[in-house]
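Hi R.,

Here are the chain sequences for the assembly we discussed:
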Amino acid sequence: MSRVNFGPKTWLFPEPALVIATYNEDGSVDAMTAAWAGVCQETPPGVMIDLAADHRTTANIRRTKAFTIAIPTVDTVVPTDYFGIVSANKEPRKFEKSGLTARKSENVDAPIIEEYKMVLECKLFDEFVIKKTSASSGKSLTSRRTNRF
Ligand SMILES: Cc1cc2nc3c(=O)[nH]c(=O)nc-3n(C[C@H](O)[C@H](O)[C@H](O)COP(=O)(O)O)c2cc1C
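And here is the predicted structure of the full complex:
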């Protein structure tokens, strides 16, 4: 079978589309979409996310040492897309404009977006910088789901 050589690429499929939620400095909510993420450890449960240095989310996680990861379903496709194309650095009302609602996690200093059925509550465990991106390893404290999942 003949194959085409595309050169070095990050093409691993399927990629997830997850939503990382954090608190801004003024206490408002931010959320961004992340595809470069996955499980990195079993005990304690650990996940890794790879974030560009200039995202608001990256600054928020460095400050609060916490974040949540929401797993989208069909009914949250539109806001999940929106969270990936608008930055809170440019749109201070980013989360408000999504029309979604959030409440504070009881376990970490990060918001839980109510409309997502499964949410991991994570504390920043470690960070290492690869060129301009920052990989954050979060220890997942709890996984929550609603009965609608
Ligand atoms: C489907 C999709 C996947 C994305 N995955 C990542 C990712 O893994 N890492 C990253 O740094 N940015 C990723 N982005 C880009 C950020 O979501 C985007 O720049 C966002 O506006 C950052 O928001 P913030 O500045 O409010 O944190 C992705 C965008 C989309 C649409």
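Residues 18-144 form a domain with the Pnp Oxidase; Chain A fold (CATH 2.30.110.10). Strands lie at 18-23, 29-34, 37-41, 46-52, 66-71, 102-104, 111-113, 118-130, 133-145.

Let me know if anything looks off.

Best,
T.
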